[in-house]
Predict the 3D structure of the following.
Amino acid sequence: MDMASPSSLVTDEHFLCAICLQVFTDPVALPCGHNFCLNCITKYWETNKLCRCPMCNETFMKRPLLRINTLIASVAEKFKEPCQPDISGIGCVLCNLCGAKNTTPAIKSCLVCLTSYCATHLKPHQTIPALMRHRLIQPVDDLESRICKKHHQPLELFCNNDEIFLCLDCLDGDHKTHNAVMVEVWMKTKMDQLKASRTEIDKMIQQRQQKIVDLQHSGQTGKSNAERATSVSLKAMNASIKYIRRSFAELLDLLDEKQNAAEAHAEGLVKEIEKEIVQLTQKKMELQQLQPNDDCFQFLQSVRNVHINPPSLTKDWDAESIDCDYSKVEEAVNQLELSVMKEAFMLCDPELPAMQQYSVKVVLDPDTAHHDLSVSEDGKQVQHGQFKMLVPRKPQRFDHVLNVLAKEGFNAKTFYYEVLVKNKTEWDLGVASESINRKGDIRLSPQNGYWTIWLRKGNEYIANAGPAVVLNLRKKPQKIGIFVNYERGHVAFYDVEDSVEIYAFTGCTFTERLFPFFSPGANVDGNSAPLIITPVITKQRDHRWSDDECDDRDYD
């Protein structure tokens, strides 16, 4: 593994003094753990009444005994050269002592002398003890702005409470209890924050750019998948239609053969019967010639050698019949139709747009709502409130369960409406009879006048058919459509977005008005979203096959 380069360590500011912002010279460590140049921290304490750390502001009752950390000092020496300021590129602040035609850049400014110095003129501040106590900063033009206008002292500190610059006298006055740090420390902190913010912003930008790439890729993948699904679906549907057509043609041939055989059998039977009728007719004519008379002897003599009994015909014609009952064929074909439609509805119900044409206006009736439910002013939304509502007691109000009905009921009519259930983990929807019990605990079932489905625990869908029917849905519906055909006794529930039938109650018997029924569930476990009655928007689809024609093309 490669060792980190000195420049990378300097960049990370591991060996920079927080006071002079230069590589450590004779580094020492305070009891709080922060490191400074020996000269920097000594001068700092000489200009302050309290002995405190410039970084964390911890105050020491007794000035700590400072010893040079030889390990840090030896490492810092290796980084001093790269860390020295590159004065060749500064140029914006010039030395004030180099004359009128000065072009020498300053490397430090003194807040006590209010003068900027080049490397040559700075030497007295580095060698004369009295001048060494002066506060040196990076070169700036407007040095007077760095002086406290109240105390005429250098603004060496920054108050984090009031977010203003302070001098030492300010800190001992109004800001005595405030959190104040050296301006260099504050700058370092802000620089670190800026660096962290830039890094975080870069990371956020990269994340979003990657998300764009992922979404574009997902869009392309989704398009490819949709095209493949369309191709497979068309091919499978076309093959199914071909097979049904061939089966139907075969069925027609079989029916024709069966009918022809039945007719031939009937013709054969008719011919046999006609032969027997001829025999019987001949026998009848023979017997009619034997007329009785008054002479008994003569009559008996004439019939003595004649067989007067009917011909011996042994065939039981009552047992013979022609099979002309095709009800089983009709039943099988009808069952095939129901099975195909049922499986097709699991993919997409083409009848949903036609059902949506029966949409009706549904408005919630607050007089039926449980007192913990909140119904919107327009009657289009309902949700579980945070506290019990002060509502009058009414016989039509649900008093134990979180239910509400629509204002208008329907009978002898086909109607349809839609409810948004997005972001919910629990809900009940359906229709209920006008005479349902609304007091106490209620069991939802057709026997009790409720035709409903519900969601529990975010992913458990049940049809309350009595007994309950577990619904295995491909995806979580966002909007539920409810279709009712009163006369046919039909109540169906749809995933509107996918045009898929979720469940249907069939063969029901309705004798009174049906009211749309709602329960938003309790506001727990992320179930705060309301149930919303939404306008019905019929989707216009581009049908590949019409009802009147279906080509036999293969889709590869």
